[in-house]
Write a structure and sequence with these properties.
By secondary structure, the protein is mainly α. The chain contains 14 helices and 2 strands; from the N terminus they run ααααβαβααααααααα. It has one domain: ABC transporter involved in vitamin B12 uptake, BtuC (Orthogonal Bundle).
Length: 305
């Protein structure tokens, strides 16, 4: 079925957006603005592809992608949390560094056939009409994305540690006065965000397009950043928004395949144009945005001041 095939590609396209956005959501809930998601994603992609090629196991590739994104995020954490560098400038520099470094690391893997992560087939359920292939014949990273949505939503709004993290994001000064270790918590949040970005990158090079192509993240990190704002820093809304943006991305590909009389460059720009439109619409609802935005987002914290 054509509809089923389209939905399968939408799921594949949306999964890295959802995972990367969830990681950034936790980071921002702790009051840290990391604009280096794109750089962490592409580092995760090249590390995952290289590890899978060397070991022959896509699962080791997934672990390598997570580790690559996490280690890269620690560089951001050291510069912004320890040295108190500007978070916006550091995040942008991290993206540029990641794009350049990944190109150097992956130079020998260009044109090499990739090792695709095979789907997990759940007996009986996978044979159900229509929903079988969509939900019960997917790869491990898809199931991890759903688990992350549920787990992060519970963590942020049902656990004491999540309440502590949100308190730091809303007022790091008051949290510090209560004896909470702000810097350590923010380091852990940044590390988690980097790991999620690395996992999203691994999905790109092991599932979405099982090969290494320079700059293959193609702006998805920026869409993930916009998705966090679109979702008003709510995990369940990230899931819905991720699939919306995934549908737009796949929609432009099918529009080109069907020969719709529009320039291919315009169709390729649709996902990013949709991102801008969504942000403009959200900006008009100032009340909702201000209620959900962490008050200390992007603000540096130095304990002895």
């Amino acid at each position: 079925m054509i509809v089923e095939a389209i939905l399968l590609t939408v799921i594949t396209a949306a999964t890295p957006l959802v995972i990367a956005a969830l990681g950034e959501l936790v980071t921002e809930r702790a009051g840290v603005l990391n604009l280096g998601v794109e750089g962490m994603m592409i580092i995760g992609a090249v590390c995952a592809f290289a590890a899978a090629q060397i070991t022959g196991s896509p699962y080791i590739g997934i672990l390598a992608g997570i580790a690559g994104g996490a280690v890269f995020s620690l560089l951001f954490g050291f510069l912004t949390l320890t040295l108190v560098a500007n978070q916006v400038a550091t995040g942008l520099a991290l993206t540029i560094l990641g794009l350049g470094l990944s190109g150097q690391m992956g130079e020998s893997f260009v044109g090499v056939p990739g090792i695709k992560l095979q789907p997990i087939v759940i007996p009986v359920l996978a044979d159900l009409p229509f929903v079988g292939k969509l939900l019960f014949r997917q790869d491990l990273i898809f199931y991890l994305s759903i688990a992350l949505v549920i787990g992060i939503n519970w963590f942020l709004f049902r656990s004491r540690t999540g309440l502590t993290l949100r308190a730091i994001g809303d007022n790091h000064g008051s949290a510090h006065a209560l004896g909470i270790n702000v810097i350590r918590t923010r380091y852990l949040a940044v590390l988690f965000g980097g790991a999620c970005a690395g996992l999203a990158g691994a999905q790109l090079s092991l599932v979405y397009t099982p090969q290494w192509v320079e700059n293959m993240s193609a702006g998805r990190g920026w869409i993930a950043l916009a998705l966090v704002v679109f979702a008003s820093w709510r995990p369940l809304r990230v899931l819905a928004g991720g699939y919306l943006f995934g549908a737009v991305t796949i929609g432009q590909l099918h529009a080109q395949a069907f020969g719709i009389g529009l320039p291919s460059q315009f169709l390729s720009a649709l996902p990013y144009a949709a991102t801008i439109v969504v942000l403009v619409i959200i900006s008009h609802n100032r009340r909702t945005t201000l209620i959900n935005t962490p008050a200390s987002l992007g603000k540096p914290f130095v304990p002895d001041r």
